[in-house]
Design goal:
201 residues; alpha/beta; Rossmann fold; 5 strands; globular
Length: 201
């Protein structure tokens, strides 16, 4: 693939969506792994049929959609079930990611994925941009956004790659401790840099 691909990641509550939304406003195509992960288990998909066959009808609601919270509970504390679901979904998600990266028409394309580094998706990218905040900010923002308990958020943070490792794998780091204007200012500079890199590819 000859186009320039930027991988964008960060821990939960770091502001990945705010960053990718702003980059999208600059006319850049966004491929969002979270959106794709929902699409591959939408009603009527092969992915959802396999989940229903494996976990039973209780993980599906009346409208035929996956009850995510139910599935999450089933796999969260069960390594075997987690491995099963990952083996099913990762190839489906990766296939869609590759197709969407291929179809992107902008100067460069951004692959947004919370588990970019954990799932080895960074190998598809020319550069990795990490949106960074400290753990206290992650906790506070996610609790407020998702109405979740501190324990729930802490468990999610613990299941992700640790901050030091994430930062060590980054080519570019944007701090999002401040307001959106500060975030956008940093992104403007990087956007200009990425356009330049993309034009050389």
């Amino acid at each position: 693939m000859s186009r320039f691909i930027l991988g964008l990641t960060g821990g939960i509550g770091s502001g990945k969506s705010a960053a990718s939304d702003y980059i999208a406003e600059q006319g850049i195509a966004i491929v969002d792994a979270d959106v794709i992960a929902r699409e591959v288990v939408a009603p009527g998909t092969e992915g959802l049929k396999e989940i229903k066959a494996h976990f039973g009808p209780e993980v599906i609601d009346e409208s035929g959609a996956l009850i995510r919270s139910q599935l999450r509970q089933r796999v969260f504390d069960n390594p075997d079930e987690k491995a099963w679901i990952n083996q099913l979904l990762h190839p489906l998600i990766r296939q869609q990611i590759l197709a969407q990266l291929e179809q992107a028409q902008s100067a460069y394309v951004v692959l947004v994925a919370p588990l970019l580094l954990e799932n080895g998706l960074d190998e598809l990218c020319d550069r990795v941009l990490v949106i960074d905040v400290d753990e206290q900010t992650q906790l506070a923002r996610t609790q407020k956004r998702d109405q979740a308990s501190e324990e729930q958020v802490a468990a999610i943070i613990a299941s992700q790659i640790d901050r030091a490792t994430r930062l060590s794998k980054a080519d570019d780091i944007v701090s999002n401790e401040d307001d959106l204007r500060a975030l956008y200012h940093q992104l403007d500079k990087l956007h200009a840099h990425y356009l330049e890199l993309a034009s050389q590819k």
